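Researcher: Let's try something more involved. This one mixes different molecule types, so please make sure each is placed in the same coordinate frame as the others.
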Amino acid sequence: MTSTLSAQSILDGAEKEPEVRVELECHDLSYAYPNGKLVFKDVNLTTFEDELVAIVGPTGTGKSTLLRCLGALLKPASGHVFLQGKEVVHPSSKISLIHQSIATFPWMTALDNVKLALKCKKVDDKEATEISEKMLDVVGLKGVENDYPKEMSGGMRQRIAIARSLAASPAILLMDEPFVHLDEITATGLRKEIYSLVFNPETSLKSAILVSHNLNEVVELADRVYVMNGSPAKITDVIKIEFPRPRSPKDPLFFEYADKLYSDLNLKEIAP
Amino acid sequence: MDLLLIGFATLATVARVLALIGLSILTGWLLAWLAIKNRTFENAYVPLVNALESIPVLAFLPIVLVVFVSRIGGVLGVEVSADFLVFDAVAWNIWIGIYQAFKTVPENLLEVAENNRLGSLRTLRLLYIPHSIPRISSNIFSSFADAFFYISVSEVFSITVQGQPVIYKTFGIGTVITLATQAGDYLTVYYSLVFIAIAVITITALISVFSKRAVAKYGVDTVGEIHRGRHYGRWLAFHDQRQRLSKYTSRLTVYQRRQRPIQEEEDEISANTRHRRDMMGKWVALSAGAIILAYLLYSSIALAVSIPFQQWMGYLTSTPFLLYNMAVDYVRVAIITAASLGVAITLGYYMATHARAGAVISPLIQVLAAFPAPTYFPLIYVATLPFLSAALPTFYVEIYIFILGFLSCFYYIFFDFWIGVKAIPSEFWEVMQNHELGFFTRMKRIILPATFPYLVTGLSSTINSCWAGLAIGEYWVLISPNHDLIANVGMMKYISLNLANGNVGAAAYVSLLFAVVVIVYGLFFTRNLMDLARKKYVVEEGIYAA
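Model: All components are placed in one shared frame. Result:
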């Protein structure tokens, strides 16, 4: 049932069709705190076109930090990140981050929050409004464009953040536990929509990386899962999840994948 | 020259300033709490504090003379006078900062407090006071700087009484410098400046550490690292340990209380009891407000009736001329404030986004801010006068007034903005980076709105303190051995000139006119801006973490 791949084999493209394009990749990425302590070391990760990749690992392994290094929001101690073959050295709207703590600007309406992503682009105000309205429509917020975030629920605020990210026409979406602050019903609803949202033909998105502690969420959404473990953390396994969507938690295969992930995360020893 | 005397005088001044800052914080918490509890008190408190903050230290001399020097008299009277003048330099900006911090406590945290029935005092202790600490830490810089700015006029002042100058003085470095300057003992002046520099650097370094930790600990979701006491000095570690111990003991007390059924406690605090407590709080607030207002009214009336009727008529007929003088000063204030805001925003943003540059520039500005400008400004004046007076014979006086005004108030807006920028959540910075927002877009869309409550505080204090800079700059007799710095026209010059000539009534009348203008400004400007800041620009509400 499961197909476990080594990180290197993925990088080599051994298990992937040759025509599938590499979108984001990082080579030997390490990150250290200012005191020199390594958080993770020699991480290699690749995402392909139309693929949602998840990163799982115990608390403190630096998953969120890795996400920020991929987006060049943090400078790694060593290693390189490439977007469509070009090295990423500065933060760019082509790699967009959705935060764990939902970040919306309280003094801006939903529409203005989304339009913010277009400020650095050469689009006039009319066009920016049209794009933003379209993205709000994509995330299901049509009709509340002029409402302020504080007038909305957590789920709606997260949709604003997603719409803002999508409006910037990113190639890669980085999602740092995007559902963790939402109630279960809202999270379940949004989870169901997220795959079609991010890979909507109306968006420019090529691939997405999700960091999550919720293994069910990961099995439901991901095409491949990178497992991080140890201190400093390393990629200890790459699991390909292959069964058709929509994936039901009642499906026996779902259980098997979740169980496999659970076992991987509970490994005490890390293979050298 | 006596180095020991200079050392003790410096210590006396530092102790005086720190003690009065402490008093300002304690009273600020109490008054701000009363203000948020009671709308009537708030309506009187905010414009009054604004008015008091705007009125320069020198303009308080009439009250000092009437209330302290003549009524109390002796050494104690002069000491209380000096304390009052130093308090005037430090308190208002701390008071208004605390009030504004109390007004911007996030709604959800207030709801948590209400939900858990913390009660007024516990809400004050556990929510309002901690929330005000970052704001206090930013305001202490400017208060300390302001207190030192005025040491030469607070610790020693001279008034003409019946044609004879009378000097009132108390022990401190301000008195040492003033008396040494008058005696031509410049060696003592230079050594005093060195002692002040040492004191200022030490205190600002300590305040800087406090401020950094305060923002890291009490700011909502900042990028700063919370200090855990491990690296504290021995005393602070002991203090920290004691705090932790007291937490444990208070927890035990809570457990003991909890042995009773919760339902019982809920029943005890009935709706009636809570209503009675609320009413009691309102009455306490109203009574405190009434006492303060009554005292101020009494003092004002006492001063007013001491002036003959004919003199009053003279003052009234001069009102248009005085208003013209006031308008000229407002133009000066507007120019200085605009310059301060521009520099503060640019420099503050640069420092916040360039950590290394910030680490170097910040202590320099703190020291410069705390170093009393009147002590070194004459050196700038003497060094530049030949060039400036030759190059700009018509405007050079205005330029010097501008420089002194800027040096007296720039730090307020700078430190407030800087602390505000540092309190912006890390997620916001990441969104700005992620979407590659340029400087102007960041400023317009995110940084200025996010720091809006801090900017309101800073602008309010800057505008108000600017007047104090003008008070010294517009009328400075013998700024150098052969020169006076005197403005052609200006309200502050009018006040200083009349005080120097012993015409206390004329100075008090202008101060009264000015106070009226400032109260109106406080009612229609500051309060509305603060309400707007609370409704729309609470940066903490931008982060949703359910």
